[in-house]
């Protein structure tokens, strides 16, 4: 941890640079794109499933936490329902409204390697370890086992339905089989070549298979070949050697003219169905582009209408737009890499200098260090007392933590998994820490989507089913249920953000349907609803003095809504009328926290992954011609010139890979950084690639 | 030529040797006795082997049985309660452990008055071992299969440190390899190497006192 002195035109701050949050993202295992709703479902190695909204700047709308020993292997959409299957042998359906698992049924075939739904949306096929392809009928509320296709001798690694639903291609060990779905018998058996050299002794694993409507079957295998087969004759048409290691994932576009293949080396290769000679009709699959955006194995690729999305063991989701499909160059057409989750993993007890870090399986409570002396801006201060880890709280059971919070006074810690909610009382003397679990919790507090304490730490707000918020009062005697806040109308989608006002009168909640409801805590009734905006809310906060709700959205727009007057503020209207600066709107990571400075009521402090910004509402807004990042320039000007040149957005780019920024009461900033290089050193081993001049 | 023929055909031309009747008789008897001895030896050897195996089995069986104290406890309990059925069960030789236990248990549940059943502590669960472990090993085996195909022998893998170091070497601002630049990396390994170096120097007395 370092303390730096940050002085600039935006004010003087002592900054605690925190790097002891060893957050490790989990690798991506599967992707599934839903064409109709434009959502991308991502399954991670730790069993968590995330849903991204592709047209809303890939904002991470929903997160369903995973559990230990999950072994998820595949995802599939059937209409608007999401299913997954894994090595634990079960098929899971997810309740996307409440962001949790709906049910899991055992397929009784051993570990399941792949799951795929047919285009008609009537059946799901799973490929099992015991060599069977099992068909499940998708009913209104459940799935039901229908029958097995003929059992084979080796495991089924990949499946693909023919668009008509009458045939299904299965990639197995050393071969590909085509089944007739109605009879269950195998029509063709195509043998995959084991290649030359050392790979001859190992079986060739057909990692992925794609069945096109014209009868072409495309496979990617462990020898590094992408092969095209004909299903009428059962023979090989063409084979392309893409890499010397494995081809792990394939995906074909909706209109079947483009195919992308992901490899172990981290490269994505695109094939396109074009005619070699202009204006001639004989088309064939030709290798066109190569994308090198990953460093580790790519386990899943998906081609959406205008981009190629890939994810793998380096835990980043990369969206690479295909420039020939895009008409207008905008922020949406830039390469996007999503590293960190779009939820806060750090909560801060401002009054006692404590920070709570949320890991999947445990929580860590740290006390910030102290420094002494003053320094010049940008210098490091002497650390008098090192930050220390006070507590590590392990979760009981196999579920991962969904959300957690520490009260502002530092006396309460609460966390929730998919099945339980636990509240702890914390006593912290100078050297002694004691923690007691509150065992008698109100029955309604069983599981929460989001948790928040009131500013005086007297109440706990827990967002639960049907977009409602439960209020519980906290005292020496324990926790008592006070009431439930229900929205007047609207959706039942889960709440992902909660914000409480400083004076304890108001509570704002934002759910996945872009609805923001404001409740009056004294009457426990809904006060008003903010007009629905097309983009999701990524961060919000209530100003301590003016009680205005400041909201940041995924498309980088900002709104300020006055709670007492039930309308947007004048400043907000000015921002909308004038428009935001291009550089602000083109940022590709969302703002995750909104803070206010009690000593400077016109300041709003925001941060995203790469920058920290203080918006001064008393200064004029920049227009497109002004220099946006003008902090350095301002330093060199005189006092007079500075006053005329400065605009409202003061951006600081000193800190990188920021997970969280908090403002402490003593005017010091805490910046929690997680350098991507540190994450990279702990990832699984990458393939050795020979590069020129090394 | 006659001498040569004499030499080569000497064995054929000479008169057969005179062998006494006794000598040949003794030889014949000896060979018969040898054969009988060999057969006897074989039989004895097999007998020994069989005996040793039997001993080994007995010892293994003994090891499988419960320790003596527990058996005595089982013996005494039914004796206390009943006389009739107890006699039948206890004095029977303890041959195999499971059947003995079952017999005793049957007697216990049939004849003893109902005792308050001991309940398990709250955090314990009862589950069949075969169900649990079979499913787990299947999943573990599947994971091992994927691990060995992607990271096992035959795959050309390198370390993350090397990947990052190469990036730095070819990057815009060239710097040292990550192992040297990043102090956190491999900190424990470096500490271990330092300690072993110190030990070596002390051992070899490279630095004079």
TrEMBL record, chain A:
Pfam families: WD40 (PF00400)
Gene Ontology MF, one: RNA binding
Record GO cellular component, one term: t-UTP complex
One biological process term in Gene Ontology: maturation of SSU-rRNA from tricistronic rRNA transcript (SSU-rRNA, 5.8S rRNA, LSU-rRNA)
Origin superkingdom: Eukaryota
InterPro entries the record matches: Quinoprotein_ADH-like_sf (IPR011047), UTP4 (IPR046351), WD40/YVTN_repeat-like_dom_sf (IPR015943), WD40_repeat_dom_sf (IPR036322), WD40_rpt (IPR001680)
PANTHER family per the UniProt record, alphabetical: U3 SMALL NUCLEOLAR RNA-ASSOCIATED PROTEIN 4 HOMOLOG
Protein name: UTP4 small subunit processome component
Gene this chain is encoded by: LOC109110043
From TrEMBL, chain B:
Residue span, U3 small nucleolar RNA-associated protein NOL7 C-terminal domain: 124-184
UniProt entry keywords in alphabetical sequence: Coiled coil
Signal sequence annotation: none
Keyword Coiled coil attributed: yes
Coiled-coil intervals, chain numbering: 29-63
Example of a GO cellular component annotation carried by this entry: nucleolus
Pfam families linked: NUC129
Region feature (Disordered): 70-119
GO MF annotations, alphabetized: RNA binding
Name assigned to this protein: Nucleolar protein 7-like
Domain of life of the source: Eukaryota
């Amino acid at each position: 941890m370092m303390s730096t002195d940050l002085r600039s035109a935006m004010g003087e701050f002592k900054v605690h640079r925190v790097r002891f949050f060893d957050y490790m993202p989990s690798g991506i295992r599967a992707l599934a794109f839903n064409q109709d709703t434009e959502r991308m479902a991502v399954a991670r190695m730790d069993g968590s499933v995330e849903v991204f909204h592709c047209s809303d700047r890939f904002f991470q709308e929903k997160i369903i936490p995973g559990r230990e020993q999950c072994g998820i292997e595949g995802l599939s959409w059937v209409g608007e329902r999401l299913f997954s299957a894994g090595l634990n042998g079960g098929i899971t359906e997810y309740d996307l409204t409440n962001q949790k698992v709906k049910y899991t049924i055992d397929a009784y075939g051993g570990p399941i390697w792949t799951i795929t739904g047919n285009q008609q949306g009537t059946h799901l096929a799973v490929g099992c370890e015991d060599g069977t392809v099992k068909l499940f009928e998708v009913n209104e509320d459940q799935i039901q086992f229908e029958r097995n296709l003929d059992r084979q001798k080796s495991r089924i690694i990949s499946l693909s339905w023919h668009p008509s639903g009458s045939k299904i291609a299965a990639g197995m060990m050393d071969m590909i089989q085509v089944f007739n779905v109605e009879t269950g018998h195998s029509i063709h058996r195509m043998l995959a070549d084991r290649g030359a050299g050392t790979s001859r002794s190992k079986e060739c694993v057909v990692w992925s298979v794609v069945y096109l409507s014209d009868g072409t079957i495309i496979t990617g295998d462990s020898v590094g070949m992408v092969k095209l087969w004909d299903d009428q004759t059962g023979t090989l048409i063409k084979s392309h050697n893409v890499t010397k290691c494995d081809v792990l994932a394939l995906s074909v576009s909706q209109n079947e003219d483009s195919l992308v293949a992901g490899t172990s080396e981290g490269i994505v290769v695109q094939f396109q169905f074009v005619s070699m000679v202009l204006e001639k009709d004989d088309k064939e699959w030709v290798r066109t582009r190569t994308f090198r955006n990953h460093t580790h194995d790519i386990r899943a690729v998906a081609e959406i209408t205008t981009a190629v999305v890939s994810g793998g063991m380096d835990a980043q989701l990369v969206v690479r737009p295909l420039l020939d499909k895009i008409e207008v160059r905008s922020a949406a057409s830039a390469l996007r890499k999503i590293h960190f989750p779009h939820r806060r993993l750090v909560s801060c007890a401002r009054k006692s200098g404590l920070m709570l870090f949320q890991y999947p399986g445990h929580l860590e409570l740290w006390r910030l260090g102290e420094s002494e002396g003053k320094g010049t801006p940008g210098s490091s201060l002497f650390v008098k007392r090192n930050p220390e880890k006070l507590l590590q709280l392990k979760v009981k059971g196999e579920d991962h933590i969904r959300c957690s919070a520490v009260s502002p006074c530092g006396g309460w810690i609460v966390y929730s998994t998919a099945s339980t909610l636990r509240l702890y009382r914390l006593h912290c003397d100078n050297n002694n820490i004691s923690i007691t679990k509150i065992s008698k919790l109100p029955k309604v507090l069983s599981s929460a989507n989001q948790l928040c304490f009131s500013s005086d730490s007297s109440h706990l707000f827990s967002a639960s089913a049907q977009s409602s918020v439960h209020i519980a009062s906290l005292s020496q005697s324990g926790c008592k249920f006070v009431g439930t806040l229900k929205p007047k109308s609207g959706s039942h989608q889960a709440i992902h953000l909660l914000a409480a006002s400083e004076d304890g009168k108001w509570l704002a909640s934002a759910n996945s349907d872009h609805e923001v409801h404001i409740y009056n805590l004294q009457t426990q009734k809904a006060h008003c609803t903010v007009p629905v905006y097309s983009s999701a809310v990524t961060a919000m906060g209530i100003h301590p003095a003016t009680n205005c709700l400041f909201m940041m959205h995924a498309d980088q727009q900002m709104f300020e809504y006055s709670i007492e007057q039930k309308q947007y503020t004048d400043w907000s209207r000015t921002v909308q009328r004038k428009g935001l600066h291009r550089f602000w709107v083109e940022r590709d990571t969302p703002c995750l926290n909104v803070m206010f400075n009690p000593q400077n009521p016109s300041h709003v402090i925001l941060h995203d992954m790469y920058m920290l910004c203080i918006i001064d509402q008393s200064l004029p807004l920049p227009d497109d011609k002004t220099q946006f990042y003008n902090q350095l320039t301002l330093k060199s000007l005189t006092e007079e010139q500075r006053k005329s040149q400065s605009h409202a957005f003061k951006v600081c780019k000193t800190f990188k890979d920021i997970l969280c920024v908090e403002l402490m009461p003593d005017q010091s900033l805490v910046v929690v950084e997680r350098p991507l290089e540190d994450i990279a050193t702990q990832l699984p081993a990458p393939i050795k690639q020979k590069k020129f001049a090394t | 030529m006659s001498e040569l023929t004499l030499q080569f055909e000497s064995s054929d031309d000479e008169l057969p040797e005179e062998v006494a009747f006794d000598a040949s008789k003794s030889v014949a008897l000896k060979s018969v006795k040898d054969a009988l001895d060999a057969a006897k030896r074989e039989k004895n050897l097999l007998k020994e082997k069989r005996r040793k195996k039997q001993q080994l089995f007995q010892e293994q069986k003994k090891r499988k049985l419960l320790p003596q104290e527990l058996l005595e406890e089982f013996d005494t309990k039914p004796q206390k309660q009943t006389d009739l059925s107890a006699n039948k069960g206890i004095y029977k030789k303890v041959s195999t452990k499971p059947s003995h236990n079952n017999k005793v248990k049957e007697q216990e549940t049939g004849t003893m008055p109902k005792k308050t059943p001991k309940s398990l502590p709250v955090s314990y669960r009862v589950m069949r071992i075969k169900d649990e472990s079979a499913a787990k090993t299947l999943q573990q085996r599947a994971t091992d299969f994927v691990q060995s195909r992607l990271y096992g022998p035959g795959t050309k893998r390198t370390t993350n440190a090397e990947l990052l170091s190469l990036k730095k070497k070819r990057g815009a601002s060239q710097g040292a390899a990550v192992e040297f630049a990043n102090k956190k990396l491999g900190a424990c390994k470096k500490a271990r190497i330092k300690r072993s170096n110190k030990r070596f120097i002390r051992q070899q007395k490279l630095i004079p006192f």
